[in-house]
Amino acid sequence: MAVGRINSLGVGSGVLSYDVIDKLREADEKSMIRPIERKMEQNVEKQTALAEIKTLVSAIRTPTKILADYSSYLGRTTNVNSDAIKATVASGVPMQDIKVDVHQLAQGDINEVGGKFESRDSVFSENDVSLSFYTQGRTYKIDIKGGMSVGDVAQLVTDETNGEVTGIIMKTGGSKPYQLMLNSKGMGDQSRIYFGTVLSANIPSSAMDLGDDDLTLQLTDKNGNEQSLSIKLKTDGSGDSALALKEAIREAIESNSELKDLLDTEINVGLDKDGKGLVINDLRGYGISATGAQASSLGFGSGQAKQEPLIESGQMVKEGKLSGVVMIGSVPLDLAKMTKDKNTSEQNAQIIAQAIENIAGMHASTDGSGKLTLSSEVGEIKISAQDEAGKQAIESIGLKSGTIQSYAKLQDSLFKIKNIQRGQDSLISYNGAQISRPTNEINDVVGGVSMSLQSTTEPGKPAIISIGRDDANIIEQVKEFVKAYNELVPKLNETTRYDEDTSIAGVFNGVSDIRTIRSSLNSLISYSELVDGKLASLVNYGITLNDKGVMFLDESMLTSAISADPKAAEEFFYGKDKQEVSGRETHIDGVFAKIDKFLATLADGSNSRLEAFGSSLERDAKALQKDKKSATELLDTRYETMASRFAAYDSQIAKTKNAFGSVQMMIDQSVAKK
Question: Which domain of life does the UniProt lineage start with (predicted)?
Fold first, then answer.
């Protein structure tokens, strides 16, 4: 009851009690509330069953959506018959066999510099020295101060090159275990570090036809004698011009008995500037020249790489009359006797240069700016002063005291540069053409194919990348479809059944939105079409239904059918484009495309059939809740009124009974007197 009980109800009458009211209310609730509650229970059951069906429809749609997607038939598999290459391919790459010869792998440049050192703090050089090298199209000059530690030199190289060349101290063992290493940051020919003299050229990509006197290189042999090499080459411009010229130069060097032993040790030839440039290098520091009718057009410019001068003064020679004595080796130069008050800087520079030129084995020049350039045939110049005036004199002509040695001299005594690993491009052959890349990850030779080079191949035994169709994914999705179908259909049967013997009906018996799903789905599964005079259906791919509606799959039959004619399988599963008489192309859906579209009408979006049906159940649930509340409130009001009336009736009955009791007592007393 919605109202509080009146404790005395029924006391007066002995009849109008709450037991009577409760029995009356129970009868009303059975006729008014219980039917609504049964409908609410059925609604909950329907919503639960619908949620299960939606989940099962979603499960079967997962494979059908994939099988209805064209990209699923573009999947590819790769198989490589060699450990030399790992390969991956993108979807849609034509099925083919790709033969690749791997001649060399890309690697970085590693160089030993200097001798062995006792510790990282050991002094690299007692004197100021400069170490120059060329890499990545740029020349770096590292000024190493006398007394600088090996560790400091390593860090200086790294800092000066912004990490393009890394200075590393390696511990190799022994009494002097530490070794300075200069390593390239990246891999490939263009990451090589060239010490000594460098002649570089930007090679045009056009065809080349080099005959006699078109390109001649002058290099220094192991005996210090100059050798001339005539480079011969003919290309059609379709290949890599810089690579072709590099190989032609290497071949010419290898053919010269006085030079061949120096190749890749003292004399180096490499690619530069993303493979479009060429570098010729002499580690010893000897000059290199390129001459000939086509030298300039090939990008060699001046065609000369000279030995570096020993000294290039950092400032102009002072003007006017100078004083002090400068010692060049053992020869004194008295500047007071050589210069005049009104001399310009350039005039003084020319006078001093001429005086040094007159010293045996010494050479000096000025470029017109008043600065001096000095060199020595013995690779060494010693500049000193006998007194304080001499020190000022050295400063006045832009030089500095000390023994300055040439690169060649320092290479023998200090640098001792040794290449441990030569930076090189990977080199492969594909379709008869040689291709180089500064990496072992190559993805721009065959469209959609990425190759990772692991090792070189044996001559005549190329790595074969076999690209095939990825049927495994299609087969797996068909298996998932069969599995999902066999989970969905029993649920549909259970919820839409009607047993005539027991009159038991499923929760969705009579609901057409649910009842027609199985028949519509089976109709699509039974789809067939005439292809080349033969009837094609899912039965041809091993998919069958028994009389109980259970789907079976013969996987071996499916695999064989797809392997035998993958294009036919694609067209039957996904669909095909057909050109009409008008010339317009139309797409005809395959069986799984049809099934997927049907399933989309069931569960895709708020307007789909199952979603709409679910919304109607939710509306019904809310309406039933409202009906139950209204009926309950009606009964509460009715029986609250009834309780009040019963209380009034009970009071009247009690009064009547009390009055009747008094009369009865008087009667009883009268009878007793008689």
Answer: Bacteria
Q: Which of 176, 264, 258, 265 is nearest to 223 (CA)?
A: 258
Task: Report the distance separating Cα 354 and Cα 366, nearest Å.
Answer: 10
Other CB atoms within a 10 A radius of the CB of residue 310 amount to: 20
- Counted residue by residue, the chain has a size of 674
- In a domain? residue 664: no
Does 26 fall in a domain?
Answer: no
d(CA 589, CA 635): 61
CB 256 within 8 Å of CB 276: no
Q: Taking a C-beta distance cutoff of 8 angstroms, is the pair 651, 12 a contact?
A: yes
Question: Would you place residue 662 in the very low, low, confident or very high pLDDT band (cuts 50, 70, 90)?
Answer: low
Do both 486 and 446 map to the same domain?
Answer: no
| Together in a domain, 452 and 531 | no
Residues 324, 336 contacting (CB under 8 angstroms): yes
Indicate whether 638 belongs to any domain: no
**Which tens digits make up the pLDDT trace of 607-643?**
899 999 999 999 999 999 999 999 888 988 888 887 7
Tell me: do 267 and 380 sit in the same domain. Answer: no
- Categorize the per-residue pLDDT at 17 as very low, low, confident or very high, splitting at 50, 70 and 90: low
Rounded to a whole number of angstroms, the distance between the first and last alpha carbons of the chain is 54
Beta bridge partners of 270: 279
Do the beta carbons of residue 192 and residue 183 sit within 8 Å?
A: no
Q: 439 with 106: CB under 8 angstroms? A: yes
pLDDT band at 663 (very low <50, low <70, confident <90, very high): low
Residue 368 domain-assigned (yes or no):
yes
pLDDT digits (tens, 9 = 90+) for 180-192: 999 999 999 889 9
The answer to whether 482 and 551 are in contact (CB under 8 A) is yes
Cα distance between residue 470 and residue 472, in whole Å: 5
* In a shared domain, residues 439 and 385: no
CATH assignment of the domain containing 254: 2.60.40
Model-wide pTM > 0.85: no
Residues in CB range of 14: below 8 A, 6 or more apart: none
Q: How many domains does the chain have?
A: 5
Give me 586's structure tokens. Answer: 């139309």
Q: Structural domain of residue 521, as residue ranges?
A: 45-71+471-604
Contact 292, 214 (CB under 8 A): yes
Angle between helices 34-67 and 591-603 (to 10 degrees): 150
Q: Side chain identity at 539, as an amino acid letter? A: V
**What is the distance between the alpha carbons of residues 214 and 229, in angstroms, rounded to a whole number?**
11
Quote the CA–CA distance of 639 and 20 in Å, as a whole number: 11
